[in-house]
TrEMBL record:
InterPro entries: B_mannosylTrfase_Bre-3/Egh (IPR027389), Glyco_trans_2-like (IPR001173), Nucleotide-diphossugar_trans (IPR029044). This is Glycosyltransferase family 2 protein. Its EC number is 2.4.-.-. The keyword Transmembrane applies. Residues 189-366 form the Glycosyltransferase 2-like domain. Keywords: Glycosyltransferase, Membrane, Transferase, Transmembrane, Transmembrane helix. GO terms for molecular function: glycosyltransferase activity. The chain crosses the membrane at residues 21-41, 390-409, 430-452.
């Protein structure tokens, strides 16, 4: 894709996506009706206790997610722009600089150059890459085509004080460069993006609204915000993986909206579409040590400890691409799980600040144990049956099952509505609904691989191909 091209889809992004709840209420009502008409009875034995625990475990996460969905649904969106905001916006796009990520990087840079100047009077885009990377010449050419772009090369011999590696090292070097330039100020905002996540008109408008609101709030203003990660259909190289990835934007309008939107992102952040004051980023930094592979979640915990109640959420979206293959999908989940396990065990952060993330990670790790296929396999070898030890538990099962269904369907709807062709296709929708158990199984395989990786204490940072 030529770097000067911005897809037609971007021209229509100003329409708002609000989470709906019909796809939660329908399965919840059906499941509760089944429980009322045909009560599951009283279970006993190991299998009954097993299902009672693992199918009830997500309840707190479910309630938090539903509350976040209500918050997102009632969240104000950007209205007509009164003009560009004067505060400086620095967009940071770290990239490994391989040829297989170049098409996505060009798309992202083109979208930022096309959309952000309409809402920000002072914009610069820092593309951060390693000295001597494979696509160095092509990346350098971006600055020639786009005057807003500055290439920031990380010297090969650069080391942080604590030996941080991977993306956190790149973020830390970029922050040091900005500090040298005197940009570590409260009136400078830094927008962190990945090299496959572009912006649209809605992104720029909501970012500007947030910055404008914080300027008006003065000392009471917030310091950090995050929006929704969407994955348009046209960016998908593998349609099945795109469908499997649908759960991600739904988590943004539910679980992440509940945490970040209420001021303290103790359950984590995304490393892209992350807006933070330059002065706050300078106070925290990204030098978390050599074992950090989920630098976004660690930054969230350190921010929560230092600036409780000072984060916000906005409805604008970034436009990324799902993994190109099932193998990349699994590798991505593996890295997240292994990195989060190391983070929740990090004693450098007080336990009370890790507990909310620890709980969320524990629920996520139990995902494979909750899969119906696992329960059916256990039923074949363990005495008893899967009914709860008390019928009172059954409505909680209905609640959690309906929420899981809602996450996938709502995420799919957001991705479709964020696409150039924003129609829900009947055949695709039916295939998606039928295949949800398979997609949950894929998530489970990624989780198991991540646990194994963490037990082996392998600190790797896999950068998957980003061809679109």
């Amino acid at each position: 894709m030529p770097s000067t091209t911005v897809s037609a889809a971007r021209t229509r992004r100003i329409r708002t996506i609000r989470p709906g709840f019909v796809s939660f209420l329908v399965p919840f009502t059906v499941l509760v009706a089944i429980v009322v008409v045909a009560p599951p009875g009283h279970g006993s034995g190991p299998l009954a206790w097993y299902t009672t625990v693992v199918w009830s475990l997500p309840t707190a996460v479910t309630l938090r997610g539903l509350s976040g969905g209500l918050l997102a649904r009632g969240h104000p969106t950007a209205g007509p722009s009164p003009g560009p905001v004067p505060q400086r916006l620095v967009v940071v796009i770290p990239t490994i600089g391989r040829s297989d990520v170049l098409p996505a990087l060009e798309r992202v840079v083109a979208s930022c150059c096309a959309r952000l100047p309409a809402e920000f009077a002072d914009v610069r885009i820092d593309v951060v890459t390693e000295e001597g990377c494979a696509a160095r010449r092509s990346i350098a050419a971006l600055a020639g085509r786009h005057p807003l772009v500055r290439i920031v090369e990380i010297p090969a011999d650069f080391r942080t004080a604590r030996g941080t590696r991977f993306k956190a090292r790149a973020n830390h070097y970029a922050h040091l460069v900005r500090t040298t330039c005197g940009e570590n100020r409260a009136d400078v905002w830094v927008l962190h993006m990945d090299d496959d996540t572009g912006v649209g008109a809605d992104t720029a408008a909501d970012l500007a609204r947030f910055v404008r609101d914080q300027h008006a709030a003065g000392e009471a203003g917030l310091h950090l915000a995050q929006g929704v990660l969407a994955y348009p259909r046209e960016h998908a190289r593998n349609r099945w993986v795109w469908l499997a990835d649908a759960v991600r934007p739904a988590c943004d309008v539910s679980l992440f909206a509940a945490g970040t939107g209420r001021g303290t992102p103790r359950t984590g952040l995304h490393g892209e579409l992350l807006l933070v004051r330059a002065s706050v980023e300078a106070a925290i930094g990204w030098d978390f040590g050599p074992s950090s592979t989920v630098e976004d979640a660690e930054f969230a915990l350190r921010f929560s400890r230092r600036y409780p109640g000072r984060s916000g959420w906005f409805a604008g979206r970034s436009y990324g691409a799902s993994p190109a293959t099932v193998r990349d999908f699994l590798r991505q989940r593996e890295r997240w799980v292994s990195g989060l396990l190391r983070l929740v065990a990090c004693r450098a952060i007080p336990l009370r600040h890790r507990l909310p993330l620890l709980h969320s990670v524990a629920v996520w790790l139990c995902g494979p144990a909750q899969h119906p296929a696992v329960v059916l396999a256990l039923d074949a070898v363990v005495d008893g049956h899967a009914a709860p030890v008390t019928p009172v538990i059954a409505p909680l099962w209905a609640l959690n099952a309906a929420f899981s269904w809602w996450l996938y369907w709502e995420g799919y709807r957001i991705n479709v509505r964020s696409s150039a062709d924003a129609r829900l296709r009947l055949g695709e929708s039916l295939r998606f609904l039928v295949l949800i158990p398979l997609f949950v199984l894929w998530e489970g395989i990624g989780i198991v691989r991540g646990v194994v990786d963490a037990l082996r204490r392998e600190h790797t940072f896999t950068v998957i191909a980003k061809p679109l």
